[in-house]
From TrEMBL:
Protein name (Swiss-Prot/TrEMBL): Stage 0 sporulation protein A homolog
Organism of provenance: Enterocloster hominis
Signal sequence coordinates: none
Role summary: May play the central regulatory role in sporulation. It may be an element of the effector pathway responsible for the activation of sporulation genes in response to nutritional stress. Spo0A may act in concert with spo0H (a sigma factor) to control the expression of some genes that are critical to the sporulation process.
Domain annotation OmpR/PhoB-type: ranges: 127-223
């Protein structure tokens, strides 16, 4: 794919291993050993993805992610030894696209990175309009169509549908959807997502078949 990947990791040995692996796949890895250096590189370059360690000196990965998301939609994968649910939820709230918990296999990390890059490129190419399974969403006007008929959605339903479309073919847990659609400070329960999914399906009618329930996992939008 020849992607340009920013690898932000303070552990030199791991950083070298990651760079060597991505380079062997034909990609162009760029190294940063701390958060400050990472932000400098992001200010000066365009990247296809960022692999971002959380626990770093000077500026941690969460702070870097928060700063990046003010101006940049580049895909971000956190590399972390933190596995607690609250840590992951905070990362998603700040704009992370995925998590890989240490220790990890290079092949899985690579696959996740390439999948995010492809998804991001599709979104860029589609621009203002996203289409999945006969459902069309126009981001600039916030209009939604099921086939040729316009569907009136509440703000929550619109954001939920947009999130599912942006993550087409990927399973989104209820917790992920809460974070991305409601925000980290939302005080309701994850089951609130089920209620909004039900209403969304009712409004989309026959086109709602593309919203799949994944038992014990969440929801997935597919063609």
């Amino acid at each position: 794919m020849n992607g340009k990947i920013l690898i932000v990791e303070d552990e030199e040995k791991l950083r070298e291993v990651l760079c060597d692996y991505f380079r062997s796949k034909g990609d162009v890895p760029i190294e940063a050993e701390n958060g400050v250096q990472a932000l400098e590189l992001l200010d000066e370059n365009e990247f296809d993805a960022v692999l971002l360690d959380i626990m770093m000196p000077e500026l941690d990965g969460l702070s870097v992610c928060r700063a990046v998301r003010r101006t940049n939609d580049v895909p971000i994968i956190f590399l972390t030894a933190l596995s607690a649910e609250e840590d992951k939820l905070l990362g998603y709230e700040l704009g992370a696209d995925d998590y890989v918990t240490k220790p990890f296999t290079l092949s899985v990390l690579y696959a996740k990175t390439m999948a995010l890059i492809k998804r991001n490129q599709r979104n860029i190419l589609s621009g203002d309009r996203m289409q999945v399974g006969g459902i069309t969403l126009e981001t600039s006007t916030r209009r939604v169509f099921a086939g040729k008929a316009e569907v009136v959605l509440t703000p929550k339903e619109y954001v939920l549908l947009r999130c599912l479309m942006q993550n087409k073919n990927m399973v989104m847990s209820r917790e992920q959807l809460l974070v991305k659609c409601w925000g980290y400070d939302y005080e309701g329960e994850a089951r609130a997502v089920d209620t909004h999914i039900k209403r969304l399906r009712e409004k989309l009618g026959e086109y709602s078949v593309c919203i799949k329930t994944v038992i014990k996992a969440g929801y997935r939008l597919e063609e």
